[in-house]
Fold this sequence. Notes:
Helix content: 25-40%
Largest sheet: 5 strands, parallel
Number of helices: 4
Number of strands: 5
Structural class: alpha/beta
Radius of gyration: 15 Å
Amino acid sequence: REDVLSLSRALMFAGKSPARIVLIEALPQDYKAIRALASAARYFYDRLFVLAAGDQHRDLDSEGASALRALPNLVIVAGAAADGRAPPGANTGAQTIDIAASAAPLKGDGTRGDAHGSASRRAAAHVTALAVRLRAVEPSIPAAAMKVRIAALARPVTTPGGIATRYGLIERPDRHFWAE
C-alpha cells in the first residue's frame, strides 16, 4: 500500500509539473501500483513515460504488467548489449517490453558500468535522453508521436538468444537521425 501511495504521489507531482518526459526507473512490483501507473499514463496523455523494464528475472507477459501494454505515451525499455543479448537477470516480455536499448555507459552520461544501477535503468535513462533531444528539436511533438519516432529507431534483434521486444533494439541511443 505504501508503494502504491508513493508512486501515485510521484506521478501526480510529475503530472502537475511542466515536465513532458517522465523517467520511471523501476517497474512496480505490485499489481495495484502497475494499475496506478497505467491510469496516470492515460490521464497525463501529454507526457511521455519511459519505464525501465527491470532486472528481476520476471516474465512481464505472464504477470500483471499487461495493463501497461500498448499505452501510446508509455515506453517500456529493457537493457541489452549492443548485439541484442539480454544481460543476466533481465526481465522478459516480447509483448510487453517495447524496446531494448544499449545499457553500455555512453560518453558523458555519468555512469560507469554495473556500479550505477541495473541495465534496464541505464537503458531507460538513455532512451529518456533520446526523447529529450527529440523534444528539443520538435518542441510541440505529442507524447504518442515521440514514442512512434523512438520506436522507429529500433531494429529487429537477429542475435541468437537476443532479447525479444515489440519493436526491437536501439543499438546506439546516443546516435539518432533528428540531430545529425
